Every structure is written in C-alpha cells, then in structure tokens.
Amino acid sequence: MGDRYEIRFSGSGGQGLILAGVIFAEAATIYDEINAVQSQSYGPEARGGASKSEVILSENVIDFPKAQGIDLQLSLTQESCTKYYKDIKPGGILLVDEDFVRDIPEGDFKVIKLPIIRTASERIGKAFVANIVATGAITAITGKVRIESVEKAVLSRVPKGTEEMNKKALMAGYNMAKTKTAA
Amino acid sequence: MGTLKLLQGNEACAEGALYAGCTFFAGYPITPSTEVAEYLARRLPLIGGVILQMEDEIASVGAIIGASLAGKKAMTATSGPGFSLKQENIGFGMICEVPIVVIDVMRGGPSTGVPTGPSQSDIMQCKWGTHGDHPVICLTPAYVQEIFSETVRAFNLAERYRTPVFVAYDEIVGHMRERIEIPDKGVLPVENRRRPTCSPSEYMPFDDTQGDVPPIADFFSGYRQHITGLNHAADGFPVNASPRIHTDELRLLRKVEGNRKDIIRYETVMLEDAEIVVFGYGVSGRSGKSAVELARAEGIKAGLFRPLTIWPFPAEEVAELASRVKAIIVPELSLGQIVLEVERCAKGRCEVEGIFRVDGDPITPDQILEKIKEVG
Fold first, then answer.
1. Reduced to 3 DSSP states, what percent helix, strand and coil does chain B have, rounded to the nearest 5?
2. B88-114, pLDDT tens digit by residue?
3. Which residues contact A176 (CB under 8 A, 6 or more apart)?
4. Quick check: ipTM above 0.90?
5. CB B275: neighbour CB atoms within 10 A?
6. Contact between A64 and B362 using a beta-carbon 8 Å cutoff
7. What is A5-114+142-157's CATH number, 3.40.920.10, 3.40.50.10540, 3.40.190.10, 3.90.226.10?
8. Chain B hits for A42, Cβ within 8 Å
9. Predicted model pTM
C-alpha cells in the first residue's frame, strides 16, 4: 500500500468531476499501464451539492478502493473544499479555483490557486470544460501520468464535435499549472 | 490477449452477461444498478437481443423467466428495494427450475434507504427472500474483473443446475472503475443447458429419472411444456401427493447442496499459519485484504478468507478454520448478518467478532487492523 497516490476531484454535482476522474484513471491504467481505481460519491441530486470522485494510482494491486490520505485534492467550489479538505495528508496539495474558493482552510498542505473556471469560460469560451482544464492542471502538478495519455483519454470520452475545444482546455490547464508551479 | 478497458463494475457485469450469451434483459431502473441496463440497452439491440423496461420489478422477473423458457439466456438487475419486489417470481423460477440470472447491487435499506450508498444487507434476503425451502446460488465478486468473470459463471451455473442464480455486490464495486481484460471468445467456458434428446412424445420436463437436473426443452420447439408454481409431477402438471412433493423438494435442494464443491469458490490469503482470519466478501473483502497485509507487516499472523460464493455457504471451510485459529473477524456493511452464519459454522470453536457499518462508507483496513489487534 506504500506507493498509493490519491487524487480527489471535488466540486458541485454537474461540473463533470466524475468524468474528470474517469479520464485521469483511464489515462493512467489503459495508456500508461499504472494500476488505477476510480470511485465516486454523490448524493441523490443530479445537480448541486458537494460531489467527489477519487482516483488512486499504484504500482501494486489496489485493494481498498477509497482514499485514506489525499495527496492532491481539487476543489472547484467552497462547499466541497470545506467539506472534504480534512482528508488531505500532511504535505499534500490543495488545488482550488481561485475565484470560487475564497476561504482557504489552514493545514499542513500546500495550496495552489488557479483560475480554472475563468480559464474555461474566457479562454475556451465554455465554462463546462472547467473539468478538463482542471484535469490538465492536475496532470502537470502530479507528474504521474503522461499528458499524451491524458489527451488520448479525453478524446475517447468527450462527445463528438467537442474534441478540439477539449484538447485546448486540457492544454490550457496543463500550461497554466506548469507556469504557476515553476514560478 | 483480450481487450483492455476501464470499466465500471456494473458495465463489467453487462459485458459478462454478453460474453455468456445473454440476449434478453428485462428490468426496472434503480440506483445503483441502472448502468447494467443502460449498457445492455446500447449493446443488445446491435446483436439482435432484446432489452425491455417493464412496468415493475416483478414483471421483469416474469419476462426473463418467459425468455429463458423460450431458450434464451436472460437476466435482470436491481437493488434492494427492487429485489424485495422480485421475490415472488424468483420463487416461481426456483420451483419451475428456470435458468435466470438476477443481479443485486446492494444499497442501504430497509425501504428506500440510501440509494447512492453501499451496503451488504441483502445477503440474507438472497438466501431467504422468497418463501419456502429453495435452492440458492449467490456469487459475491469484489473486483471489476471478477464481476465480469462471476457474471459469466452465474450464467453457467444457472444453465448447469437449471435454477436462478444471484450475483450480489455492493454499490462501491458496482460504481467503481478498474482496468479489466475482456477475454477473447472461447477463453472462459460458456455452458448451455441440457436439452432433451428424446422425441417430443416421450418428453417430460421434470423427469427425475434423468438425474437431478432434467433436460429442459425450449417453448415452441415442439416439446410439450407445462409450467406451474404448484408442486408438480414429472409431466409438469400439479400434484398434491406424497411422496412426489417430498422427493422433488429434496431434489431441488440437492441440485445445489449436493454440488457444493463445484459451486463454492473463494480466495484465501496467508491462511496456512494464520491465527486470526478476516472473513469478508465484496468491498469488505478488499478492505480485509489490505488489513491482513498491514497486520503481517507488524508481525501479526493474520489471514483472509474471501468468499466468491456466499450461498451455498462455505460451511466446511469455515468449520475447518474455526478448529485451528484463535478468532475470525467478519467485517460487513450491515448490522450483523453473515457473521451469524460464520458463528453457526464455527460452533464456538473460536472467537467470532463482527465489524458492522451502515453509514455509507466502507469499513477501512485500519478499522479491521484495530480489531485484529484487539482479539490477538
């Protein structure tokens, strides 16, 4: 269990965070051949509420499928950040949308703030690709999965006709996080 | 090499059904099982199969019983509240010896309970949900790959023993995604029911001189069938007399109980020198496996028994373990169901301790490790 790397995608129901988790897990396990498990937790509502999707990566077989100590948590909403941040392990990373998560919790973790939703709506032109922008950012920050693999997974999972937009969104998130973490 | 895919447990179940030759699905949607139906709704029409959304759960079982009697491999999928409603026709399937597969993706209950949360509290309903003495086969996979292979096995057992077979797994493994390899055709065995070789005029659908599993003819194939929920004679017509009822009821149970070795499957981890054993299935079995690894790393002699067949219950195996270990720990997402069966088989020869959880989260490896240390 020692080499588990746990990522949690959290936000509001309808933001596509389960899909983001699925894409990331598919990139890891189908294209990069790392063991991965993706699970999700959601309430009865289809929209709204706090929603989360978790991806666990490991070189070994993954038995316990849920996160126990989060290495990286993404939060696109204040509610999901406040509700879930306590599971971040010491020295972990909290990645937040800088416009929507204003009240940053305190703890033994590194905070990275990025304008994820703003990038999706202003640079790509569609707020609903924020999940893909975030996936690009997580790919850059974790360095666990190749960006080419994530791109393949994105293209295999998004609706036909939206491929170019999603590719742009992925790279926007990836480059934004690269610039931010290099600074 | 088969095909590698990242699939959800429920999708793997649907793939398993297709691999086994299922061409008919009838159901009524219910969280957390709906993806089984959704996946088959996309795939079955492409191979000339049928998917029907029925008016309710009991009708769904009626539909698959009809399809199976017409010679098709048929399945339904549901969750606890729907499983309760299906019980009447499941009993009908048992007494009429109809090969069908029923998937139960377990969520919290009773009643509507927690639709999106995991549970393992239908496990006694699998055994005793329908009334009367009846044969029960219930498989309990824990990994996405296993949901695929155990669904294939469920169809094989249904065909081999001419009886309904359940596959029961919790919401967590139903909804989680893992990489699976879908084997090429021919890699996993796929069985078909024994059909009559006699002439139509000689055929009797419940002729026990043909063995405990009489051949079954397809409806509309020229062989006369009579199907009734009443106890029946060899020709299928009602009978209300001894000794036929007694011998036939015994035969129904014997089909399963007499073939335990063929039906019971399980995984064990480090049981040889184990002093404390975790007995867990489904997601609790996965937690158990991690807990055993943690315990071993601390020098504690722990082992795992993870049943893939929960009914018929691996009674002999549990009895043997109980005679040589200090304690058996039973983690389950209920307030204590399968632990009773473990206690029954242990007969007081070792300590049996349950860990129960019904708050929507799985039992963690740390929770189990703590219990291992407590009893150790």
1. 40, 20, 40
2. 999 999 999 999 999 999 999 999 998
3. A114, A115, A119, A133, A136, A137
4. yes
5. 16
6. yes
7. 3.40.920.10
8. 116
9. 0.96
